[in-house]
Design goal:
It is built from seven helices and seven strands, in the order H-H-E-E-H-E-H-E-H-E-H-E-E-H. By secondary structure, the protein is an alpha+beta fold. The strands form two sheets. Strands 1, 2, 5, 6 and 7 form a five-stranded antiparallel sheet that branches. Helix 1 packs across helix 7.
């Protein structure tokens, strides 16, 4: 979620220098827990949907998930999985929403992944892929530059399409009228492309 957020933060700080921002980079489920425990005012998550009657949900953007690998990798997931160097899933933490979705996808199609490496940074995941190690499933916007520069390529999943995800800004329903939260969300609207 932090990819692309820096422009919003930079603009917000310039407009409102007297306001302090504390930013925590956690998994989406942990962000929701922090919100529910009143430890944060806004939680940003990537998910298929949010079902919580105590949370006000604001959809910010659509997140297209893509399978990506080095340009030398095979073009389809079945072909890719027949190569030891590429049958290596490089992904983030276990409770990541798109990791969970992809693992459900591979289970439903009886796909065998030989090796998984867990990294907590999309930048580090991309470094593995750029070094021609394995494949990953990531939101398109996080790899758009590498795809445009032909440093990575999209791998066809073949079996079926990957699910659609959305970026949400979450606030507790009580406290939604907080003027600082409204200011930050207004600033987000200037930068987020729906």
């Amino acid at each position: 979620m932090t990819t692309g957020l820096s422009d919003v933060i930079k603009s917000f700080i310039a407009k409102y220098p007297e306001i302090e921002l504390d930013i925590f980079n956690n998994s989406c489920s942990h962000n929701q827990n922090l919100l529910m425990n009143s430890e944060v005012d806004i939680a940003f998550v990537v998910n298929e949907k949010i079902s919580n009657k105590y949370i006000h949900t604001r959809k910010l953007s659509t997140e297209q998930l893509v399978l990506v690998a080095h340009p030398e990798a095979p073009d389809t997931l079945p072909e890719l999985l027949h190569h030891n160097i590429y049958n290596h899933f490089v992904i983030n933490e276990r409770d990541s929403t798109y990791r969970v979705a992809f693992e459900s996808f591979i289970d439903s199609h009886n796909i065998e992944i030989k090796k998984t490496t867990e990294l907590w940074s999309i930048h580090t995941i991309k470094t593995f892929l750029l070094d021609n190690i394995g494949f990953s499933v990531l939101p398109y916007r996080t790899v758009a530059t590498e795809l445009q520069n032909q440093q990575l390529k999209i791998i066809s999943p073949v079996y079926s399409q990957l699910p659609s995800f959305y970026t949400f800004a979450l606030t507790k329903k009580m406290g939604w009228d907080n003027p600082l939260i409204k200011l930050f969300l207004q600033e987000m609207n200037l930068f987020i492309k729906y």
